[in-house]
Write a structure and sequence with these properties.
The chain is 62% helix and 3% strand. It is built from 18 helices and six strands. It has one domain. Helix 4 runs antiparallel to helix 13 and helix 7 packs parallel to helix 9. It is mainly alpha-helical. The strands form three sheets. Strands 1-4 form a two-stranded antiparallel sheet. A two-stranded antiparallel ribbon has the order 2-3. The chain has a two-stranded antiparallel ribbon with strand order 5-6.
């Protein structure tokens, strides 16, 4: 049988039917799980999408206001509007990621990268990930990288500004991930002068400060009227604000949130566990970057790696105001994954066709065993009290169907 033959690792090629199957199963699982959360009118996975501007400028309220206006003007059930668009975001993300993935050679290293514990399968392995707002951000990122090559130099800033506005006003944490796009843009136009790059990035910085200022204003100075927001969504939640995400607007201040997060970080060994999860999950990705060979001397991979590490430090504020460390490093992984796939398919780099982990011939089934234990046997927990999910991930996966 084919699985029992001995091959060099560099001869490994992932079957595209298997790849497509994992994508389809993941999408169906997430869509079903989100429908369940919507049916239960869940706190985090559903009610967060309903926050809107009916009571004034509200943190996280942009996309909810868009949904509310569609519901109000077209007289559509608000829950159906939310479900339609969230599933649409998932379709866009999964389709464009699959399209990017199939554009590269799926050798063993790239297979590990695609099926990292923090890659798209993370969404399927954790029920509570279904319906979280990052899928809006992911779909915008997917669109950006899919059309990047078709954009003119001066047009890219408008895309990054648009993503900053839509994503940042929907979840303020996404703003701290925008530097990935800005520095990727600067890197990919290394042939331009520093002054040309500056004049393109400067407007992005202005809008970033404007959005950040608007969020601070709505949080500390002119707080939204929670009652008016509740009046606009009462028919679509269990009890407002007590059983919606709006309760967090009235419960803790940013200062109190910070101290609560730091207490969890210390009590649940975040600073020990999550760096380990990060290293394990990101290792193949950075091995891939390190082994890129540039076809153009203007594009130095060490410079890109430095930018990525710098951007990772830019996300630290998110970790200081939230406990979901698994989610936050998942956001990092998805963005860097798109950067990796784009670089590899851009013809500015090529990947050495060599053995990265095994120097000698090895049974093909052993490569699949390694892949299984790395990608499908365990998963990074979303937040501190939870432990690594070993095999338990399948309980979450199957519960979507039964």
């Amino acid at each position: 049988m084919n699985l029992f033959i001995s091959i060099y690792e560099k001869k490994f090629q992932l079957n595209k039917f298997f790849l497509k199957s994992i994508f389809i199963i993941s999408f169906i699982t997430v869509a079903i799980n989100f429908y369940k959360w919507l049916s239960r009118k869940a706190y985090f996975e559903y009610s967060d999408w309903l926050i809107n501007y009916q009571g004034g400028l509200a943190r996280r309220g942009f996309i909810g206001e868009v949904f509310f206006q569609i519901h109000n003007n077209l007289n559509l059930n608000l829950s159906y509007v939310v479900f339609f668009f969230v599933v649409l975001f998932y379709i866009i993300f999964f389709y464009l990621l699959y399209k990017k993935t199939t554009a590269i050679k799926l050798n063993f290293l790239n297979t590990l990268i695609i099926f990292s514990p923090l890659s798209f399968i993370y969404l399927a392995f954790h029920q509570t990930m279904a319906g979280r707002k990052e899928i809006l951000f992911f779909s915008l990122i997917a669109i950006f990288f899919s059309y990047f090559n078709n954009l003119k130099f001066h047009q890219i800033k408008y895309w990054i500004i648009s993503i900053s506005i839509i994503a940042g006003l929907t979840h303020s944490g996404f703003l701290f991930y925008i530097p990935y796009l800005v520095l990727f843009f600067a890197f990919f136009y290394s042939t331009k002068t520093k002054l040309e790059i500056f004049f393109q990035i400067f407007p992005i910085g202005v809008f970033f400060v404007f959005i950040f200022g608007a969020l601070i204003f709505s949080t500390t100075i002119s707080k939204p009227d929670i009652k008016l927001i509740c009046d606009s969504i009462n028919l679509y939640v269990n009890k407002c604000p007590e059983e919606t995400y709006l309760i967090f607007f009235t419960t803790y201040s940013n200062k109190e949130t910070f101290f609560l997060v730091m207490e969890s970080v210390l009590n649940f060994n975040y600073l020990i566990k999550y760096p380990i999860y990060f290293i394990i999950s990101f290792a193949p990705l950075y091995v891939g970057f390190k082994n890129f060979k540039n076809l153009d001397k203007n594009f130095k991979i060490k410079k890109l790696i430095f930018y990525l590490i710098f951007c990772t430090f830019c996300t630290i504020p998110v970790f200081l105001l939230g406990e979901d460390y698994g989610r936050y490093i998942h956001w990092q992984y998805i963005i860097i994954l798109f950067i990796y796939l784009h670089c590899l398919s851009s013809r500015k780099f090529f990947q050495n066709d060599k053995n990265y982990f095994f120097n000698k011939k090895i049974k093909k089934y052993i490569l699949f065993i390694v892949l299984y234990f790395y990608s499908f046997f365990w998963s990074v927990p979303i937040y501190g009290p939870a432990n690594i999910k070993i095999l338990g991930v399948y309980k979450n996966l199957f519960s979507a169907f039964f």
